[in-house]
Amino acid sequence: MNIHDPAAELRSNVATPFERAHAMPVSVYTSEGEHIGEGQLFIEQPLLEAQLFLIIGRKDLWHHHYGTAALIKLLDQAFETLQLHRGWVDIPEYNEHA
Prior knowledge:
Layout: H1 6-13, H2 17-20, E1 22-29, E2 35-44, E3 49-56, H3 66-81, E4 86-88
Parallel strand pairs: 3-4
Antiparallel strand pairs: 1-2, 2-3
């Protein structure tokens, strides 16, 4: 016997943003191969857009252009490879250098 449950059907079509979006993480390395940071594209494929995240964990390597180089790679991935239409980043006010 099959029982139609409209509420169950509705629940199966509802997803949190994390379930809908696709995350594409990347690691940031120095030229010597040392891991110093992480970046990520958080992709909303139906909207053809992505939020970008980037962190360089070692403060002594801030202002050495690692973040800039990683951001350029993420943007190339977003716009050239994935053909997304929009990308954005949230930067806190206190992060004046970003």
